[in-house]
Write a structure and sequence with these properties.
It is a single chain. The protein is an alpha+beta fold. The chain has a domain of about 90 residues: Ribosomal protein S6/Translation elongation factor EF1B (Alpha-Beta Plaits, 2-Layer Sandwich), CATH 3.30.70.60. The chain has a 4-stranded antiparallel beta sheet with strand order 2-3-1-4. Strand 2 and strand 3 form a beta hairpin. The longest helix has 23 residues.
């Protein structure tokens, strides 16, 4: 059977649990038509580059599908009917990646960086770098009085 990667954008108003329920519904459609979902990745809520149907953000999800074209057509037909689905795109691929997608790898890297940043901040304490301790400015001398526009 052909292999597909399918990306789905759902409205930001719906909860993550509702998105998972929608995906389970589409999974049922695929399985009824003789296919199967190999992998599901929930990418979370992300900002859109431009408004889509008055939404600035959307829930993103990736589905790796092994199914006949008729199953994909039926799933896409049902997505077009749904008001909660903003956009979707299905691409036929030669093989499906079993490892995490680039979006999931990016999330893992970002999470690691945040944890490392938090540890460093705790180790150094506040004022260890950006504008905290101003003792390293050297002697500047007296600046004198300042006048602000209109006086003088």
């Amino acid at each position: 059977m052909p292999l597909y990667e399918h990306v789905l954008l759902a409205r930001q108003d719906v909860t993550s649990q509702q998105v998972e329920t929608m995906i389970d519904t589409y999974k049922g459609v695929i399985e009824q038509n003789g296919g199967r979902l190999e992998k599901i990745e929930m990418w979370g809520v992300k900002s859109l580059a431009y408004r889509i149907k008055k939404n600035r953000k959307a829930h993103f999800a990736l589905l790796n599908i092994d199914a006949p074209p008729a199953a994909i057509a039926e799933m896409e037909r049902q997505m077009q009917i749904s008001e909660d689905v903003l956009r979707f795109m299905t691409v036929r691929v030669e093989e499906l990646d079993q490892e995490p997608s680039a979006m999931m790898q990016k999330r893992d890297r970002d999470d690691r960086k945040d944890r490392e940043r938090g540890r460093r901040r705790d180790d150094e304490g506040f004022g260890g770098g950006f504008g905290g301790d101003r003792g390293d400015r050297g002697d500047r001398g007296d600046r004198g009085e300042r006048s602000f526009g209109g006086e003088g």
